[in-house]
Backbone:
């Protein structure tokens, strides 16, 4: 969304072409209690000082600044979608689908340009601003309540295969900031057993659907009311079932 991944790839290519990657991967560790080992680290750094300073110039600083601004914009954009909705979850807001798809292609093509081209046209800025406004418009007469499960809280440094880590805490901090500004209500709940309890009969009698002798992890079957559930949909509905009595002051249902 913000071009960070593309800029990181280009930065890695720059390091390889300038032999910086080779230098950095061979830096002796400064974390040592031995004087000789620390002296070896200092000597190595002085030997390659000029190459490192030449590489980490204004261009690198500009990339880091762009990454910081991009991360801030991406977080704000994600929260605006949660507050005001998006065309993905609100079909009434879908219009000019083909034209919008063309605009997105043009916006995405910017990130494939060379890093030296830093200027953005006035027309491009206007298009980006119009795109952003779509998620700044909401029903001011309603206060959105966002339910936040504790499954991934304080686990930003835990790497999950196939997923980028470190995002959850950023979103949570931004949600708390928006709550303090009076833009939303944030409710923390314990999401334990949300995908183990049927949301139809509130009985813990679920098992994975079997096909050809293999279990399908994503689909659950309730042996009590015989409803088939998508695991993620079930967890979301269960979180809403937990949040409703908590918000009313009655506490979490005993089954959870």
Residues:
């Amino acid at each position: 969304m913000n071009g960070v991944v593309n800029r990181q790839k280009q930065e890695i290519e720059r390091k390889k072409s300038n032999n910086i990657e080779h230098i950095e991967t061979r830096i002796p560790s400064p974390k040592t209690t031995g004087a000789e080992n620390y002296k070896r680290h200092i000597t190595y750094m002085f030997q390659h000082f000029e190459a490192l300073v030449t590489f980490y110039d204004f261009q690198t600083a500009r990339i880091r600044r762009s990454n910081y601004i991009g991360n801030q914009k991406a977080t704000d954009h994600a929260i605006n979608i949660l507050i005001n909705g998006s065309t993905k979850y609100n079909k009434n807001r879908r219009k000019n689908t083909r034209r919008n798809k063309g605009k997105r292609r043009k916006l995405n093509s910017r990130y494939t340009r060379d890093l030296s081209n830093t200027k953005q046209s006035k027309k491009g800025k206007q298009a980006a601003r119009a795109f952003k406004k779509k998620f700044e418009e909401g029903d001011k007469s309603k206060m959105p309540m966002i339910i936040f499960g504790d499954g991934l809280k304080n686990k930003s440094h835990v790497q999950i295969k196939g997923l980028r880590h470190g995002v959850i805490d950023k979103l949570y901090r931004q949600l708390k900031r928006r709550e303090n500004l009076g833009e939303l209500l944030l409710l923390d709940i314990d999401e334990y057993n949300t995908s183990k309890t049927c949301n139809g009969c509130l009985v813990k009698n679920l098992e994975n659907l079997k096909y050809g002798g293999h279990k399908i992890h994503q689909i659950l079957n309730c042996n009590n009311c015989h409803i088939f559930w998508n695991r993620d949909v079930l967890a979301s509905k269960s979180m809403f079932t937990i949040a409703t009595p908590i918000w009313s002051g009655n506490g979490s249902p005993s089954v959870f």
Observations:
- The longest strand covers residues 214-222.
- Residues 58-84 form the longest helix (27 residues).
